[in-house]
Amino acid sequence: PRRASDECTLRTHMSLLDASCIRVIAESVGIAQVSDEVAEALAPDVEYRLRDIVQEALKFMRHGRRETLTCDDINFALRARSCDPLYGYSGTDPPRFCRAKGTQDVYYLDDAELNLADLMAVPLPSMPRPPRFTAHWLAVSGVQPDVAENPTSAEALAAAQPARAAASKRKRGGGNGGGDELNGDEALLGQAKQVLWAEQQVWLEKLFEIIRASKPAAPQPAAPQPAGGGGGAAMEVVGEGAAAPATSHPGGEAAVAASRAAGISLDSSAERAEAEAAQRRDAEAEGGHEAALGSALRSVAREPSMHAYAPYLCQFVESEVQRNLQCLPMLFALMRLVRAMLSNLSLNLEAYLQQILPAVTTCVVGRKLCAARGDDHWSLRAIAAG
User: Fold this and answer.
1) Distance between start and end Cα atoms, the chain
2) Above pLDDT 70, what percent of the chain?
């Protein structure tokens, strides 16, 4: 039978770490005296933990498709085992160990010798820039602002080339043998649709409402006047639905004449006051409408996200010009809307010229653009031609 000392000697020879290695490690951390029994008991446990760390690091190496174990792999394994990483060995190049002269199993790291005088003579590097944060819009209502942080149009075009090529390839593959080939741009434009959000629809309806308010209201029909030059004012109600002349007492003719004169004067003053109040209300309403119309047109001329509204605005102008050919205020508002659309640099109207040009040309050379001859239709023609 084997003795306990023989088993201990066999286990020591099979392990990579022996009691002397444990004593050296203990002395490096400040433990001066470690007995042989403690060192022999710690050696298997230390070796087991080292093997576990190395095997875990080899997993990281294989997942990284590499054949060289690096210090980063060891650090990843230590973090996976909830241990502190190693500091001072984080380099891309693996460490190079050199064998000490006159020894068999003593190695050291081949570090380059540096001259402190040369290091002192090297100028100091520039101070790093302090961290800062800036915010910018990636897109506003589907439109990318032209700022330095966003990609340029050339970069966006280069990034969209694979999508265009794929769309063109799908289009050719769906044809009869690939005879009709379409460009990628045409294939993408054919699928593009302008869809407005709920907020955009509300804004568009409000704009249409403001422009339609430029059309004057239809005049109210005048109330019929009683025949006889206002003689009805000298009638007194006797019963329900019956009337009798107010001349049932002596001297009634003079009283009737006086009452008629007073009634006419009172009616004329009331009508005059009502007309003045109506004029004031119309002036206030016209001033408020002009302010709202100016604000809406400035928004159309300055907003960078108006490209989504282009088809709706062009269709609105075309239909409203046809409906209001003799309404000069409405045509003025529509031509001002067209001018605001042309002033917007982010709005491209080339695709909608077939809708805009007939409406504008009608306001330039139309035969009859107003209901009365005295209306200033020449100003409308000048605005439409400019």
Assistant:
1) 116
2) 69
